[in-house]
Amino acid sequence: MRAAALALSLIASTANSQTCGGPVNTFIEGVKAEAQAAGIPAATAEAFFQGARIEQSVLNADRAQGVFQKDFVSFSRALISQNRIDNGRVYGQRFDSTFGTIEARFGIPRGVLLAFWAFETDYGQVQGSFNTRNALLTLAHDCRRPDLFRPQLIAAIELYRRGGMNPATTTGAWAGEIGQLQKLPREIVRQGMDGDGDGVVDLKGSSPDALMTGANVLSSLGWRANEPWLQEINVPANLDWSQTGLNHKLSVRDWAARGVTARQGALGPSNLPASVLLPMGRNGPAFLAYPNFEVYFDWNKSFVYVTTAAYFATRLGGAQVYDAGNPTPPLSGQQMQQLQQKLTARGHDVGGIDGILGAMTRAAVQAEQVRLGMPADAWPTLDLLNQL
To answer: Do the domain assignments include residue 322?
Structure first.
């Protein structure tokens, strides 16, 4: 009962004031007080922060995420190697029993988790060398995203109380993720599962624990059991491009009536809502995104990462290599920032001038394409930039 009450108090702690910056020792004292208010013993919080420090390398990593500026074709070709495909088959067979349990309990195909496992840590081989406590302290103290990382720091103290991490030695990604599927402390506290039956939740050393926890996380985020998530399609040349994109949905039946067909196999159930996804515009790859695709954005906010992970999951399930088409060349990072500045000046919310073509920038691009009478496929071109 105490563990359940504490988990609820950790969830409620996000409503507290998310202070940041200032003297580090003062900040840590505030975090200790918040942890104690959530029911964590003072001695536990005190021990957790022994030797803690701000890490400049974490801030450097946080500011240097230029990889997400790549377009879908470039990004996916960089991440999806033959080695990762081959290892996906090997690990799928090696942990067949765990995947079978996941498929029966959660209705999540093994390819979905195998793709995350591959991208996050190369199937557990590269889990990160940043001290987890220091990474979370650094990002919570930094005033860029304290509302995200301060609750994770509190949860890490609770994870330490449970024996799930050692603040001095536990390592992971620069953003505080731990284990083979790179989960943050709050997810481990809430959804951590013992997949190998040894009574311990060990996301670093136990692949079954990591996979079961990953499945539990996806399920808690709203994964709809035994439904598709992404499927490559053929689109007719006369499709109304202004109806494409994740901000527009029609039933599979309606898309089929408009000439959309599956490139391989059959489309999903006719009554499912779906979006036509054109990651590089009407002349590039085309996909039908089902409701489960939206769950991916709760795992990672990057449009290009999410699309690549979802596509790779289909490849691991037997889909063929996508048809790259002949898309208009992408804008450079500098040109994308110029475009975002112009879109912002016209009143659009693009989520920040970062040179990254995310979902919000795509929606703004499409709106301007409609206004200018251009093919509204949400793919920014030099012509659009010049017209704006």
So the answer is: no
DSSP state of 327: P
Same domain? For 131 and 9 the reply is yes
Same domain, 271 and 195: no
Q: For residues 132 and 128, what is the distance between their CA atoms, to the nearest angstrom? A: 9
Domain assignment of residue 94, yes or no? no
How many domains would you assign to the chain?
Answer: 3
pLDDT, residue 69, reads 80
Residue 103: Cβ within 10 Å count: 16
Domain span holding position 183: 2-63+127-220
* 122 inside domain: no
pLDDT at 10 over 70: no
221-245 average pLDDT score = 97
Provide, rounded to the nearest whole percent, the portion of the chain with pLDDT above 70: 94
Cβ neighbors of 346 (< 8 A, separation 6 or more) are 368, 388
Beta strand 261-262 pairing with 130-131: unpaired
- Going from the C-alpha of 195 to that of each of 27, 190, 381, the distances in angstroms are 37, 15, 48
CB 322 within 8 A of CB 285: yes
Question: Is 30 within the bounds of a domain?
Answer: yes
Instruction: Name 183's bridge partners.
Output: 178
Cβ atoms within 10 Å of 51's Cβ, excluding its own: 10
How confident is the model at residue 68, as a pLDDT?
A: 67
The residue whose two tokens read 């190697």 is 81
Residues 353 and 299 in one domain: no
> Average of pLDDT values for 57-65?
87
Q: Could you tell me which residues are beta bridge partners of residue 261? A: 234
Tally the residues of the chain.
Answer: 388
How many CA atoms within 13 Å lie on the side-chain side of 33? 10
pLDDT band at 29; cut points 50, 70, 90: very high
Question: Can you tell me whether residue 94 is helix, strand or coil?
Answer: helix
Task: Report the interhelical angle of 24-37 vs 132-141 (nearest 10°).
Answer: 100
Question: Strands 230-234 and 171-172, how do they pair?
Answer: unpaired
Q: Do 4 and 12 meet the contact criterion of CB atoms below 8 Å apart?
A: no
By three-state DSSP, how is residue 273 classified? Answer: strand
Residue 16: band (very low, low, confident or very high) from pLDDT cuts 50, 70, 90 = very low
pLDDT confidence band for 216 (50 / 70 / 90): very high
pLDDT of residue 156: 98
